[in-house]
Amino acid sequence: MQTLRFFWVYLVYSFNMKIVLGSASPRRQALLKEMGFDFRVLIADVDESFDANQSPEEIVLSICRKKLAALWPLVEQNEMLICADTIVYLNGKVLSKPNSSQAAIEMLKELSAKTHQVYSGVIIKDKNGEHQLVDCTSVRFQELQFEDILQYVKTHQSMDKAGAYGIQDWIGHIGVIEIKGSYTNVMGLPTQRLYPFLRKK
Question: Is 45 one of the catalytic residues?
Answer without folding.
Answer: no
